[in-house]
Amino acid sequence: MQDSTREQQRLFAEVFRRLAYLQQFLLLETGTVHTLAYYLAAFLSAFLTTCTQRTSSARLTLFLLLSLSVYVERGLYASEQGPQETGLQYTERVYALVWLLRKLVAIVGTLLLVYSAATYQDVARQNRELLRCLKVSQCHLQSTIEEAGEGSESEGLGGG
After folding, report:
1. 59-97: buried (b, 16+ CB within 10 Å) or exposed (e) per residue?
2. Cα–chain-centroid distance for residue 127?
3. Which residues contact 39 (CB under 8 A, 6 or more apart)?
4. CA pair distance 131, 65, nearest whole angstrom
5. Could you tell me the pTM of the whole model?
6. How far apart are CA 31 and CA 22, in angstroms?
7. pLDDT at residue 110 above 90?
8. 69 and 132 assigned to the same domain
9. pLDDT mean across residues, the chain
10. Is 91 a residue whose pLDDT tops 90?
11. Same domain, yes or no, for 128 and 116?
12. Where is the chain membrane-spanning (predicted)?
């Protein structure tokens, strides 16, 4: 009788162990699909928002930030279930951490994008301004030279 009870306990433990493994496997696979869809949209959004010259300097940083986030998220999905956690608690904890990470990355990415746009300097506009200043200086020098030339011609005519 005790042998059959132990055998049943062992079988139940094995079944629960396999169910826990199956749950973790399904969580990882479901997480993979969600991660793929989310980060595909995130990379596309990062690319589209950095298409302008004003924000293009943030593109590489955003892509690196998103890549790091993917790596950390995969680590969260692969984490082990705590000994005191039920399967539902584990799943909820992992999803809460994943969404916290995603929100943090979205905030940091937005700040990087805003910083890039705020510190942008239009080189073409600066060059046009410099050329305009040079043109004004050239015109001023030209008129000064012409005035000096006219002044020396009048002295030559008056003195001779």
Report:
1. bebbeebbeebbeebeebbeeebeeeeeeeebbeebbee
2. 30
3. 66, 69, 70
4. 39
5. 0.62
6. 14
7. yes
8. no
9. 84
10. no
11. no
12. 25-48, 97-118
pLDDT in tens, 39-57: 999 999 999 999 988 888 8
User: In this structure, are 114 and 128 located in the same domain?
Assistant: no
How many domains does the structure of the chain reveal? 2
Can you give the residue range of the structural domain that contains 132? 123-160
111 and 129 share a domain? no
C-beta atoms surrounding 1 within 10 Å: 5
Tokens of 42: 């995130």
DSSP 38-51: HHHHHHHHHHHHT-
Q: Indicate whether 52 and 131 sit together in one domain.
A: no
- What one-character DSSP code corresponds to residue 5? H
Two structure tokens written together for 115: 């910083």
Q: Are residues 90 and 146 in the same domain?
A: no
What is the pLDDT at residue 69? Answer: 94
Q: What percent of the chain has pLDDT over 70?
A: 91
* Residue-wise DSSP of 114-154: HHHHHT---HHHHHHHHHHHHHHHHHHHHHHHHHHHHHHHH
